[in-house]
Amino acid sequence: MPKTIIISNRLPIKVQRTEEGLAYETSEGGLATGLGSIYKEGDNIWIGWPGTYFDDEAEQQQVRKDLSNQSMRPVFLTEAEIRDFYEGFSNETLWPTFHYFTQYAIYESEFWEAYESVNFKFCKAVMENAEPGDTIWVHDYQLLLLPSLIRKELPDSSIGFFQHIPFPSYEVFRLLPWREQILKGMLGSDLIGFHTYDDARHFLSAVSRIVGLNSSQGVIDNGFRSIMVDAFPMGIDYEKYASMAASEGTIAKKEEYRHALPEQKIILSIDRLDYSKGIPQRLLAYELFLKENPEFHGRVTLSMVVVPSRDQVEQYKELKETIDELVGRINSSYRTITWNPIQYFYRSFPLEDLSAMYSIADIALVTPMRDGMNLVCKEYIASKLDKKGVLILSEMAGASRELADAVLINPNDLGQMVQAIRTSLLMSEEEQMLRMDHMQDIVRRYNIHHWVKIFMNRLEFIKMKQLSMATE
Ligand code: GDG
């Protein structure tokens, strides 16, 4: 019986060593939720790294055994692989290049060699589990070479690939010394998905100019197979966020927050620590807003959550310092005995707290310099049960293509961000509700389950078409 294999760098679970032994924490992320209905079914499996370094054979065996009961197969990475493949090529070469931060990109042949060898390692793990006829879905920029490695071993398998981060324009992509190998790696797929049409268009243009393969209506013919390239904007588990916002726990937390911030307009900002998210620019815009709008002093609070991420990498350490300094400067310049312009948290929160923050916020300020999609803004929309609240959203987030009723801004335009904050604070409730209603329709309809379904259906359609052409 053919099965489906999901592969991503990280498994939807985190394994940790504790004093009592190994502890398993399941991921609540959107991808894990959306694909949960697939990988837990029948013989289907999910292959990936469990997120912790294990060198002890007995410990690895234990992890293997524990995870196999949950339809997961671990790929163990060595310390050198974590450093060169994950922190190195994935996060210091591909991540900055694909987010247009080319000044941060490191082109290091040792990183590339590690990237190739870890992609081989993943391929080996796939081969230990796959059979002809299986459907394989590879995720994200850490595994760009994997589709063609699997194709060599299993020529007739059905392979889908989805990239969660942007695909840059040809002019930026071509800076990578390994651009051709990367594209050829991806072209092992039958279906290649991105969040937006622009990403898909950039990919097709890079394939045409670097590999010399042209496309017609998103389909590339490599002489052996047709490869379809399209946009599949990812959604969230809408019902989860909507029902959590109505839960007793969230309502109690919301009251607690309201009590702590009486009569304040709350502007919410939530991101992982990352230069792509535009956090310093957002702070500068808020500072300028306070300077130009003294009538709002004492009446507005920026509640800013920055979730620690990749803090071993130099640029992230520097970014953290920049944010700390800006928050310090703004708070010390404007605070009063009874008011703090910014509530700054450098940590992550349980989902219930997040839900209360989404529900209570008058404005969500989501202003990345680049973002594949951005799920935070969709979670905010789903949490707004009374439809009151405004979303300020960067044009550079994939989500802006769907959410035309947000107040859209260019994150490089400080003046426009300042104006957007003012407009949103003064927006009538009627207009807020009208805009929110439209956005909720979209986010509810194009949810994570819809996303998984249309991607898998398209992959199946392509395979059927290939089979029917082969028998003609
Ligand atoms: C990549 C792409 C694309 C945040 N703080 C806390 C917390 N979160 C959760 C949010 C949200 C997730 O983290 C962040 O998702 P994003 O989509 O905003 O951003 P990335 O992590 O950069 O994700 C992105 C995504 O992949 C999917 O394809 O949209 O463009 O960069 O779900 O809720 N969760 C908890 N506590 C926190 O403090 N529990």
From TrEMBL:
Q: Which domain of life is it from?
A: Bacteria
Similarity annotation = Belongs to the glycosyltransferase 20 family.
List the protein's name.
Answer: Bifunctional alpha,alpha-trehalose-phosphate synthase (UDP-forming)/trehalose-phosphatase
Q: Which organism was this protein described from?
A: Rufibacter roseus
